[in-house]
Design a protein that fits this description.
- The chain has 344 residues and is an alpha/beta fold.
- Helix 4 packs across helix 7 and helix 8 packs parallel to helix 9.
- The longest helix is centred in the middle third of the chain and has 19 residues.
- It starts with a strand and ends in a 6-residue tail after the last helix.
- The model has no long low-confidence stretch (mean pLDDT 91).
- InterPro entries: CheB-like, CheB_C, CheY-like_superfamily, Sig_transdc_resp-reg_Me-estase, Sig_transdc_resp-reg_receiver.
- Its EC number is 3.1.1.61, 3.5.1.44.
- Pfam families: CheB_methylest, Response_reg.
- It is an enzyme of class 3 (hydrolase).
């Protein structure tokens, strides 16, 4: 297998050198070029035909978002954004993911151990991006699905990772204002989840918020698990309270989809569990526990996933009742809320 041909786009010469050193240390990656700004990058993309682009956000001449929008409209390709862990960085990175970037990394900094960890993560994300499906821009805002009775007393639990931001921007605006409560674990840093929830809230009929300790779940509300420090669970009934607890990584993540799914499994047929696009296998065991408990279980179909990792693991485990395309997912979820197990 040939190395992943990668083009680095960053206006900082020192950062370009750092990223090149990190990526070149992996024998499965070849840095084919480096561009200081988008106009040079445009010409290098035509000349070099890279597999993956790493893209800075703030650059002279044309910012990274504007360049990304053009790429996804004219020549869709896997892009990994390189951002800073700031409030502004979070907002812009979320917009980049909505526009179709596969993933993001934070700019390397800190101790030698931090740099080594950042390098391993960067290489892994670039290689994953090379295997992903590039999208031609953001999904169009879907129409509101029809709503029928019978969904009272239900709960929707969703897990997603790589590609999940774009998927959730497609799915959640289609949900009606009176839908059952929704609990979501989307893998992202602690500094990103609040901005993510606020951005979704501005575009959705449902209320979207970052989950807080002790909050009572309400219909018509989506709760995004805070990133980084805690796992999110639900205690009690469908109208129970959110519990944010510290703990070790589970399936490599905190918050973990598996932890969320297992916490709602005792509610059985009251739950609809959903696995969306993502790398790895977080959520597969939890979704199986849900299905065994009598819950409805859905996964995003392979052809609509940016990365068919988490859904694939769940399918292979026998945890998935039905695979559904992303555009059909809102209606499938609402239908599952209204029907009994086995009648999707």
């Amino acid at each position: 297998m040939r190395p992943v041909r990668t083009l680095i786009v960053d206006d900082s010469a020192s950062m370009r050198a750092t990223l090149k050193r990190m990526l070149s240390a992996d024998p499965e990656i070849e840095v084919v070029g480096m561009a200081p700004e988008p106009f040079a990058a445009r010409d290098m993309i035509k000349q070099l035909n890279p597999d993956v682009l790493t893209l800075d956000i703030e650059m002279p001449g044309m910012d990274g978002l504007s360049f990304l929008e053009r790429i996804m409209r004219l020549r869709p390709m896997p892009v990994v954004m390189c951002s800073t862990l700031t409030a502004r960085g979070a907002e812009v990175t979320i917009e980049a993911l909505r526009l179709g970037a596969v993933d993001y990394v934070t700019k390397p900094s800190g101790t030698p151990e931090d740099i080594e960890r950042d390098a391993a993560l960067l290489c892994e994300k670039v290689k994953t991006a090379a295997r992903s499906v590039a999208r031609a821009g953001p999904a169009r805002l879907p129409q509101q699905p029809s709503v029928a009775g019978g969904s009272a007393g239900k709960l929707i639990a969703i897990g997603s990772s790589t590609g999940g931001v774009e998927a959730l921007f497609s799915l959640l605006p289609a949900l009606p204002a009176d839908c059952p409560p929704v609990l979501i674990v989307q893998h992202m840093p602690a500094s990103f989840t609040r901005s993510f929830a606020q951005r979704l809230d501005a575009e959705c009929r449902v209320r979207v918020m970052e989950a807080t300790e002790g909050a009572t779940v309400q219909p018509g509300t989506v709760y995004i698990a805070p990133g980084g420090e805690t796992h999110m669970e639900l205690s009690g009934s469908v109208a129970g309270r959110i519990k944010l607890r510290s703990g070790d990584l589970v399936t490599g993540h905190r918050p973990s989809v598996d932890v969320l799914f297992r916490s709602v499994a005792p509610l059985g047929a009251s739950v609809v569990g959903v696995i969306l696009t993502g790398m790895g296998q977080d959520g597969a065991e939890g979704l199986l526990a849900l299905r065994r408990a009598g819950a409805r279980t859905l996964s995003q179909s392979r052809d609509t996933c940016v990365v068919w990792g988490m859904p694939r693991a769940a399918v292979e485990l026998g945890a998935v009742e039905k695979e559904v395309g992303l555009s059909a997912m809102p209606e499938a979820i609402l239908k599952a809320c209204r029907e009994k197990v086995g009648s999707v």
